[in-house]
Write a structure and sequence with these properties.
Elements: H1 8-17, H2 55-69, H3 77-80, H4 89-92, E1 111-113, E2 116-118, H5 123-127, E3 131-142, E4 145-154, E5 161-165, H6 173-176, E6 180-184, E7 190-192, E8 195-197, E9 200-201, E10 203-206, E11 211-214, E12 226-227
Antiparallel strand pairs: 1-2, 3-4, 3-6, 3-12, 4-5, 6-9, 7-8, 10-11
Length: about 230
Amino acid sequence: VLLYPVMPEAGREIYKQLGLRDELTATDPTKLTWGELQAGTQIGEVKPLFPRVDKAKTMEEIRGQKSETRPSGRVHQSETRPSGRVPDAAETRPSGRVQPSGQHATEADAVPGAEGVINYIDITDFARIDLRVGEVRSAERVPKADKLLLISVDIGEEKPRQILAGIALHYEPEKLVGRKIVVVANLKPRKLRGYESQGMLLAASVGEEGKPVIATFSEDVPNGARLK
């Protein structure tokens, strides 16, 4: 009854599954008391109120929508470059799978890429992102959260950062210790499962299931070094 004003369909379904025959809208919330459902009341058919989303089907629909909105022709760089100077490699290089600040790109900027559509961003947008080299000091699983790891990362500051990462299904915590990673250092902190996450690690998303593969380095780099 109390749920009905904000979720009418769910409210009706719960009412029906409890075996109640009265009209839900005719029930006065102010007169409700505990224990009115009589023992022996025959319940209705029990079925899920909120069916689980089929991930594979949903991803297929998203890819279909992208292909419908993809422009037919490529936007040539010569048409968009300002005259008078040659942009450096950092300005013309595609941002790849990770696009931290792509909200300023327009539909006209989109061109086909290795995984669909790449929305190019301005160099000033990229410059706002502070990417730092970090070293994992410790990692542990988050209670009652199968996908989350709580990671302590040294990025050259006075104290290590605490970061939550949804990689627990693919990485053992103890095997991450000592590993060099890439951290988004100026991401606004947020709370999740009672822990504050003070940044984000970067990882590629591989395959249909989006398996995370952590970005790392083949050479030795100091903690806190900035990526440009």
